[in-house]
Each structure stands twice: as C-alpha cells, then as structure tokens.
C-alpha cells in the first residue's frame, strides 16, 4: 500500500508539473502579441509619369561588370554618368559630386547642422551580364527597357538601378521644391558591386575612414517586401536586413600518381576529392539562431497561427526543435547555418588516364558569429584528410557583418517610413543571405540596414540575376515615395534620434 501510494503521489506530482508547464506555454503565447501601431499619415506624393521612362532609359545603358577578369564597359559607365547629369539637373547643379576610381559616384547634400551625423544611401550602377544562350528566353530584349503589362523589363530594372534612380528622383523633387537639408546626406553609387565592390564602394568606404567619418545610418539594397514569402503570415512583410552573411569560397585539391586507368590505385585523386566533398555535404556546419532571426520571429510570430505562435513564444523550451526543423529544410536552412555549396569540380583529361590532380570549389555563406577562419578550420576537421589541401579561392571574401539593432532610432525611423508608404505591410528585421556593398562600410555606423522597397512574390525571386528581370511600375513609384519620405523625415526635418 505504501509503495502504491508513493507511485500515485509521483504521478500526481508529474501531472501537476505538466499542467504548470502547459499553463506557462499558453500564457506566454497569449502575451506574445503584435506591437504594430498606426503609422503617421503621409502627405500624398504624385510621381511624374516620366520617372518610369527615365528608369527605362537607364536600363538601356548596359553598364555590365563580370567575373573572372572583371572586364567592364567603361564607355557604358560614362554614358550612364552623362545620362544622370542630363536627367537630374538640380542634383548635379546643387550637390557636391566626386568621382572615385573614375566611375564610382559620391554625392553630398550638405546639411545646416554639423552636430548631426550624416546619413548615407548606397546603390550600385553595374549589372550582371546576360547568360549566353538565354537571350531568346526573355520576353523582351534584356537591355530594351520595355514597359509592358504594368512592368518595366530588363537587366537592372530591379538590381539595382531601381534604388539608384528612385533616390535621385526623390532628391530632384525635393530640390525643385526648395528643400534644404538639416542633416548632411551622402549618396554613394559604386560601379563594381557585382564583382566585389573593391574599386567602388570599397574605395569610398576607405576614404570615409581616412576622413574619420561616421554615419547616423547607412541604407543599401537588400531584402524586399515579401508577398506570400513568410509561411503563416498573410500580410506582405517588409524584410529589413539588420545583418548579412559572410562570403567564402574554398578550393579543395587532391593529388595522385598518374598512369593508365587499367591499373588504378586503391583511391584515385578524383576518389579522394569526391570523398572529401561528400563528407562536407553529409556533415553540414552547426545550426543555431542568430539575433537577426530571433528578431524576425519576435516581430512576425504574433501574426502566425497559434501552433507556430506557441513555439515562437516559448523558445526557452522549443528552440532546439525549431532549429533542427529549420536546418532540415532547404527553404529555411540558410537562416540557421553557414551553408555549404559545392559548385565546381575539375579533374582528368581522358577517360583512360589517371589524373594527377583534382580540384573542387565550394562556396560558403557564413552565419553571423562565425569567421572565415573558423569555417576553414571546421572544413579541415570534417574532411579529416591531410592529403586534401584547402585554400581560399575567388575574388570575393568577407566575414559576416555586424548586427544592427532593431531598437535603434534609425531602425524605428526606417520602419515608420516603410509603413507610411505601405500601410498594409508588416516590418521585420531579417538576415540577408547575399553580399552587398554595405559590407565595405562595417564600423562606419552602428545602424547599417539593407532594404529594397519593392514587392516580390515567390516566382519573382528567380528573376534577380536571372531571365526576365522586371519591376512593377507601381512598385517603382512607391520606391520614389519611400526615398522622398525618408529624406524628408531624417534629413530635411529630422526628428531627435535618441536610441531606446
């Protein structure tokens, strides 16, 4: 009887503990609510019908940069500069303009209050080339700048002439109305972002460092307004990247004795290399939640169905399960781990000749909190084969950026402007998987954000750097409104920026 009584008491205690945990889980879920308030009303802004025509003309100038030789059409960049000067006469008449390394452009709109840190807007002039053999797949010629079906079609329509032209359109409108800046505004337009940005944004950033300049905020291209891109969230989501992943390419090489394939060794150079690559794919790098992803869940979780809300409101319990689930899905793994992507393999000259060497190229996008050297060390550990050499390759390499706060006054100002122009959207921090020019400016501001103010649905994602790149005419008009409102509220009439 005593033993039975103890068992019953133990079961009751366990049930009581389970009940307490359930109460805690649901209490936290119920308190996990959205904080979104109504944005201030924005004065309606009419955008000239000529604005989309000017973007079309900009797209028609093929300012291409490409790897591996980084050849650029210098005449196209000069043509583009002449085009900008002709179409934005007030900007080019009233602002200080500097060329860096011949083709990078730096505009300065001098403010009246030198006690305020300046703001910096980044865009880039160059575009990626058209993949050979795909020209016929385009609905319209890639450099025709065709306006049809409510879209502007062409290479650069989205990436990244849209933000460059929209910011200049907004500035020209403000100058036409006699606006005077309180805060100094700089606009930096690099010319080689698509091949690393060293001569453009990199050189501009280095000049700022030598001058001892720092910025209230820096805004570059980046994440977009996702329509239907966040599972469980019905509203469009403006994803403002507070950090971007690092970039690293490694070349793996193995060597072996040559000879006739009829008398092969136990493991050939190809076999040894294949084993190394397979080990990297079989053992992906560790997964974890970083601050930008935590912040994203904090903002968007309250808008999700209750089952997901329950999990996100109780990461103290469910984080390992959440991370494991995200790491196991191709669509979400990039949020939680440094990704491993073997992309090139080279070996051999003939089917009956043993190759004396073999090499593979593997690309990594590095999670915030890791460094390139840490990734290299992990790769060597996973491969566990001293006969396979590991070395950096490629012309682009960078550690992950620092993480900017979603609590800063600069982020709050940016969020307010996005909501004013797009009243139907949610605004959320995010992690950017790709690389932008903003990485060159690390350390020049505590508030570096990456956001492109256009709406993108799932099928459109493949258009960036791909076939049939386009931007909706309405989206481009709203991008102009976005930059106009951003300049008005943070440069012309800046509210006190007290972080909190």
Structure description:
The protein is of the alpha+beta class and 500 residues long. The chain has helices at residues 2-31, 50-59, 74-87, 89-94, 161-176, 198-211, 269-282, 291-300, 306-312, 315-327, 333-336, 372-383, 409-421, 473-492, and strands at residues 96-100, 104-109, 119-124, 147-148, 151-153, 185-190, 217-227, 237-244, 246-255, 259-260, 339-347, 353-354, 357-366, 389-398, 426-432, 448-457, 470-472. A hairpin with a 3-residue loop joins strand 1 and strand 2 (104-109). It is built from 14 helices and 17 strands. It has 3 domains: 50-244 and 401-492, Aminopeptidase (3-Layer(aba) Sandwich), CATH 3.40.630.10; 246-286 and 337-398, 2-Layer Sandwich (Alpha-Beta Plaits), CATH 3.30.70; 289-331, no CATH class. Helix 2 (50-59) runs antiparallel to helix 5, helix 5 crosses helix 14 (473-492) and helix 13 packs across helix 14.
Topology at a glance:
Elements (H helix, E strand, L loop, with lengths): L1 H30 L18 H10 L14 H14 L1 H6 L1 E5 L3 E6 L9 E6 L22 E2 L2 E3 L7 H16 L8 E6 L7 H14 L5 E11 L9 E8 L1 E10 L3 E2 L8 H14 L8 H10 L5 H7 L2 H13 L5 H4 L2 E9 L5 E2 L2 E10 L5 H12 L5 E10 L10 H13 L4 E7 L15 E10 L12 E3 H20 L8
Parallel strand pairs: 3-6, 3-7, 7-16, 8-15
Antiparallel strand pairs: 1-2, 2-6, 4-5, 5-17, 7-8, 9-13, 9-14, 10-12, 11-13
The main pleated sheet reads as: 8 strands, mixed
Q: What's the number of structural domains? A: 3
Relative helix content: 25-40%
Based on the structure given, which CATH architecture of the largest domain is correct? 3-Layer(aba) Sandwich
Report the radius of gyration as a whole number of Å.
26 Å
Number of helices: 14
pLDDT averaged over residues: 92
CATH topology of the largest domain: Aminopeptidase
The total count of strands amounts to 17
End-to-end gap: 62 Å
Let me know the CATH homologous superfamily of the largest domain: Zn peptidases
């Amino acid at each position: 009887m005593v033993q039975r009584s103890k068992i019953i008491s133990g079961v009751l205690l366990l049930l009581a503990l389970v009940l307490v945990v359930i109460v805690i889980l649901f209490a936290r879920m119920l308190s996990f609510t959205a904080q979104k308030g109504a944005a201030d009303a924005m004065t309606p802004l009419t955008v000239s019908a000529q604005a989309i025509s000017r973007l079309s003309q900009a797209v028609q100038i093929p300012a291409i940069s490409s790897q591996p030789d980084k050849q650029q059409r210098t005449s196209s960049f000069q043509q583009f500069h002449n085009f900008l000067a002709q179409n934005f006469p007030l900007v080019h008449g009233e602002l200080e303009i500097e060329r860096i390394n011949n083709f990078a452009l730096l505009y300065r709109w001098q403010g009246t209050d030198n006690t305020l840190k300046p703001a910096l807007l980044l865009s880039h002039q160059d575009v990626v080339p058209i993949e050979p053999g795909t020209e016929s797949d385009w609905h319209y010629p890639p450099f025709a700048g065709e306006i049809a079906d409510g879209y502007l079609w062409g290479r650069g329509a989205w990436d990244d002439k849209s933000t460059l032209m929209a910011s200049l359109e907004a500035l020209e409108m403000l100058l036409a109305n006699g606006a005077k800046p309180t805060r100094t505004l700089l606009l930096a337009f690099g010319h080689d972002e698509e091949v690393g940005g060293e001569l453009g944004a990199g050189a501009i950033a280095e000049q700022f460092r030598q001058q001892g300049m720092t910025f209230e905020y820096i805004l570059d291209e980046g994440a977009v307004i996702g329509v239907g891109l966040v599972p469980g969230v019905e509203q469009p989501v403006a994803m403002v990247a507070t950090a971007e992943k690092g970039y690293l390419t490694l070349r793996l090489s193995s060597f072996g004795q040559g000879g006739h394939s009829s008398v092969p060794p136990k493991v050939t150079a190809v076999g040894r290399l294949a084993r190394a690559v397979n080990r990297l794919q079989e053992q992906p790098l560790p997964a974890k939640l970083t601050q930008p992803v935590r912040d994203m869940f904090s903002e968007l979780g309250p808008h999700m169905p209750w089952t997901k809300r329950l999990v996100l409101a109780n990461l103290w319990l469910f984080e390992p399960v959440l991370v494991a689930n995200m790491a196991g899905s191709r669509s979400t793994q990039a949020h939680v781990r440094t990704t491993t992507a073997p992309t090139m393999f080279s070996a051999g000259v003939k089917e009956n000749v043993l190759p004396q060497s073999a090499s593979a190229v593997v690309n990594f996008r590095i999670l915030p909190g890791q460094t390139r050297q840490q990734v290299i060390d992990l790769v060597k550990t996973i491969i566990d084969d001293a006969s396979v050499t590991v070395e950096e390759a490629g012309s682009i390499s960078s550690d992950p950026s620092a993480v900017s706060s979603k609590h800063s006054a600069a982020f709050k100002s940016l969020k307010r402007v996005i909501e004013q122009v797009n009243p139907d959207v949610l605004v959320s921090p995010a992690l950017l998987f790709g690389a932008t020019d903003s990485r060159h400016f690390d350390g020049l501001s505590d508030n570096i954000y990456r956001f492109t103010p256009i709406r993108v649905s799932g099928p459109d994602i493949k258009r960036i750097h791909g076939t049939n790149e386009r931007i909706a005419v309405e989206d481009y008009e709203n991008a102009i409104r976005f930059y106009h409102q951003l300049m008005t509220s943070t440069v012309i009439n800046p509210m006190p920026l007290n972080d909190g």
